Amino acid sequence: MNCAICGNKLKIFRSYKVNKVRLDYIRRICIDCVKKLGITKIDSETKQSLLLSHIEDLKRLIENKEKFSTRIQLERASVEKENEIQIKNEQEEKFKDVKNEFTIHGSIYSNVFLRDDNKQILLTKNNQNWYKIFKYSELETFERNIDEDVSYKTNKKHGITRAIAGNAIAGPVGAIIGSGTAKSNSVENHRIKSITFSIRFTSGYLYTIIFSGIDSQIKIADSLYLHLNGIISSNQRDNKKTIMSNNNELNNLTKLKELLDDGVITEEEFTAKKKQILGI
Ligand SMILES: [Zn+2]
Fold it and tell me: Does the structure show a pLDDT above 50 at 2?
């Protein structure tokens, strides 16, 4: 172990005593550096302010041959603490505003807020100021896992949506959603313990939310399922459109190249048109 200030090796097995307080417990500062800081006794106040000071500041004090002052360090620490509180309050305020906007303009599914008007997703966590905002277009896929109590049989229908008829779901998303349909009959007879959603975004970010098996939660989870499905279908339609328009652009470019090769248009005309098509 080395001294945090000078980097010299600390002799850990020997206690460094200044007024019977072990300094290596405080901050791993060697006795030489403590002396250089002008500290002659370590009382509780000194100990506390040493703990609160930044190593960089202590280094600077030694470099400038200044003495360590308990009062200055404590004052600084209290200012820092005030700043921290202020930042935290600002974050809380910001979070409240964001949440409020989504509450007014969107749909709330526990900690997930979906805004159709500007196509944004707000993710939050229980009792925390944590949040993340994504665009609908960033929603890549989601998985819904229904945990059932198979030993419990009931005639009550919970009405969980299994698959969406007439919905053009293709690819990996379809596979995930489709997998739920197989046991649709069995599920109706069992009590649901919980419903877990794993929501993945194009950045690779994965968000998980769990709903309990009580009726009101199942209802919310089902609405979330439908809403997310709608977004994914819409994203897929948009992707298709993009691919088609890309294909059109490619066709146009191919035709242009033919015109250039046949000498119908000049090189400049070709380049200008190409830039226009590619939007560059
Ligand atoms: Zn040192």
Answer: yes
Crossing angle of helices 267-278 and 215-261, in 10° steps, is: 180
Q: Around ion ligand 1, which residues have CB less than 5 A away? A: 3, 5-6, 30, 33
pLDDT of residue 163: 60
How far does the centroid of ligand 1 lie from the alpha carbon of residue 267, in Å?
A: 72
Cα separation, 221 vs 208, whole angstroms = 12
Q: How far does the centroid of ligand 1 lie from the alpha carbon of residue 53, in Å?
A: 15
Is residue 100 pLDDT above 80, yes or no?
A: yes
The per-residue pLDDT for 5 is 86
Structure tokens given for 113? 């807020």
Q: How far is the CA of 36 from the centre of ligand 1 (A)?
A: 9
Average pLDDT, integer, range 89-115: 96
CA 67 – ligand 1 centroid, Å: 15
Distance (Å) of CA 270 to CA 135, 248, 266: 37, 17, 6
The answer to whether the CB of 133 falls within 8 A of the CB of 98 is yes
Is pTM beyond 0.90? Reply is no
